[in-house]
Write a structure and sequence with these properties.
The protein is mainly α. The protein has helices at about 5-20, 45-80, 80-90, 95-105, 110-120, 125-135, 150-185, 190-220, 225-245, 265-270, 275-290, 295-305, 310-335, 340-350, 350-355, 365-390, 400-425, 440-460, 470-480; strands at about 430-435, 435-440, 490-495, 500-505. The strands form two sheets. The protein has a two-stranded antiparallel sheet with strand order 1-2. Strands 3-4 form a two-stranded antiparallel ribbon. The chain starts with a helix and ends in a 12-residue tail after the last strand.
Length: about 525
């Protein structure tokens, strides 16, 4: 039976191995919601204006697709898995390791000032400056293995630059989501995000696999520090490329009026019934997922005795399923709305933790079921969770709404993760219940599954204008032929009752906006 210290020591390594197998895809895209109304121009100038808009749309969509791929390389080279690798290399204590692992969630506390930053600088400028900076402030880590300083000092440098990068990333991401909500035409948002997610998932899996091979060889040659430094240098270089790609994407509404900052802006989502319902769902869902979400990798390595190669194969399999499922979910989002997709996936994901009760060291095939179920359902859930806030929030107030959503999500996930860690410390490593051999993490999985089902029930109160019911989802998923993913109609933008950009068909704007 491993000691308690063994549990703490194995956690970072386990989390790192799973993260290296697949990095989550960053959702989003750029596509001009439309230039000024073409109907205001003279008839003779309309074809030229449409052609210009189509060219701009193509350029923005392609640049955003490429930026997403580069972002996956950055995540593979300098994301949470590699930060965990730094803590292991620097012999950090469990406390320091826990702080590093929690940085991305703790940084969500800066979502409220992020809304002010977005309003002050403008969406495109704030995104390019802050996201670009978040990918460069970690550059000092390149020299960290070679500095003649003590290990506690090195750990302080790691915490400092990683924390600053996380904060800048949160500030920039608020602007990015608001920017993307106007850049992608609403009618094709799901399909485009689906295709982008599929491509980024594949790129992220390949990049993470390459990083894992490099670190394995470096560890065998006792050159882990040099390998980590090399990966950080590559991440910073890719950060420059990603910034250049973001500069190729334009803001369809660059002259938006700046909104004055006030606490009333952040209280408004809590007064809005649709936004309040989403907040309740996000708090309950992230708490349910956070309780056990960080411990599946530990279970694979410590209890199932899986090798790093098998763990990587599991992550790659999940990535492959996500890649295949993304375009299908994208079509469903465009036809039915985000609410039915989110509800169906939430109830389905509630069953996933129970699958992990069956694998044993000599009986791993249930993990194939997990790859299929989790890959399909988490893909749909992530796309719907990105689209639903855009569908229910007013454009002018969107940065503040998004700030509230991200803040409550990050806090509930962080608190639940800490509670999950404390609970595993209190439980025995292994015990028998009704003649069945169980371990401490099995208890977390069961509790998480029950809580996920309860969180899915809160989603029944979610509101989305013009969304279909969940029953219509089956027809869309299996009863229709796939539409060509390379065709996206460029449509004029008109204001609907909610002030949201709505798409209207235009005969002259029927050219393809996505490259095959």
């Amino acid at each position: 039976m491993p000691s308690r210290s063994t549990k703490s020591d194995q956690l970072p390594s386990a989390l790192a191995s799973l993260s290296a197998a697949i990095s989550p895809s960053r959702l989003g895209t750029t596509s001009p919601a439309s230039a000024p109304s073409l109907s205001a121009a003279s008839t003779s100038r309309q074809p030229e204006a449409h052609a210009t808009n189509t060219r701009v749309l193509r350029r923005s969509l392609r640049a955003c697709m490429a930026e997403g791929l580069v972002a996956e390389v950055i995540t593979a080279c300098a994301g949470g898995a590699i930060l965990t690798g730094w803590t292991i290399y620097l012999h950090a204590s469990p406390l320091v390791t826990g702080l590093v692992l929690a940085l991305s969630q703790l940084a969500q506390l800066f979502q409220l000032p992020a809304a002010w930053t977005t309003s002050l600088l403008g969406r495109r400028r704030a995104c390019v400056l802050l996201v670009g900076a978040s990918r460069q402030v970690t550059l000092p880590l390149v020299a960290l293995p070679f500095l003649p300083i003590s290990e506690p000092a090195r750990q302080a440098v790691l915490l400092g630059v990683a924390g600053l990068s996380a904060v800048l990333g949160v500030l920039g991401n608020n602007a990015w989501v608001s920017w993307m909500s106007d850049l992608v035409p609403k009618r094709v948002r799901g399909r485009y995000f689906g295709r982008r997610t599929a491509l980024c998932t594949l790129g992220g899996a390949l990049a993470a696999a390459g990083v894992g091979v490099l670190l394995d060889h470096a560890q065998a040659a006792e050159q882990t520090g040099a390998a980590l430094a090399l990966l950080q240098a590559l991440a910073s270089l890719c950060g420059v490329v990603a910034t250049m790609l973001m500069l190729q994407q334009h803001d369809p509404r660059p002259e938006q009026a700046r909104v004055e900052l006030g606490w009333s802006r952040f209280v408004a989502p809590l007064r809005d019934p649709a936004a309040r319902g989403l907040c309740i769902y996000l708090v309950s869902w992230n708490a349910a997922v956070g309780l056990a979400g960080s411990f599946f990798a530990l279970h694979m390595l410590r209890n199932l005795k899986m090798s790093y190669t098998v763990v990587a194969l599991h992550g790659t399999a999940v990535a492959g399923v996500r890649m295949l499922a993304a375009p299908v979910w994208g079509r469903a989002l465009d036809k039915l709305g985000a609410r039915p997709v989110l509800l169906a996936c939430s109830f389905g994901i509630a069953t996933v933790p129970f699958i992990w009760l069956f694998p044993r060291e000599d009986f791993l095939w249930p993990l194939l079921v997990d790859c299929l179920v989790a890959g399909v359902l988490w893909c749909g859930h992530s796309l719907a969770a990105f689209n639903l806030p855009l569908a229910i929030t007013p454009r002018a107030e969107r940065p503040f709404y998004l700030a509230v959503f991200s803040t409550v999500s990050g806090l509930s996930f962080s608190v639940a993760t800490i509670l999950g860690g404390l609970l595993t410390q209190l439980l025995p490593d292994h015990f028998t219940l009704l003649g069945i051999q169980l371990c401490d993490l099995h208890v977390l999985f069961v509790i998480s599954g029950v809580l996920r089902f309860g969180a899915a029930l809160t989603g029944l109160r979610l509101r989305e204008p013009q969304a279909h019911g969940v029953r219509a989802l089956w027809t869309v998923l299996v009863g229709t032929r796939p539409a060509p993913m390379v065709l996206v109609r460029l449509e004029s933008s008109v204001a609907n009752d909610n002030g949201e950009s709505a798409a209207t068909d235009s005969p002259r704007a029927a050219s393809s906006a996505l490259a095959s």
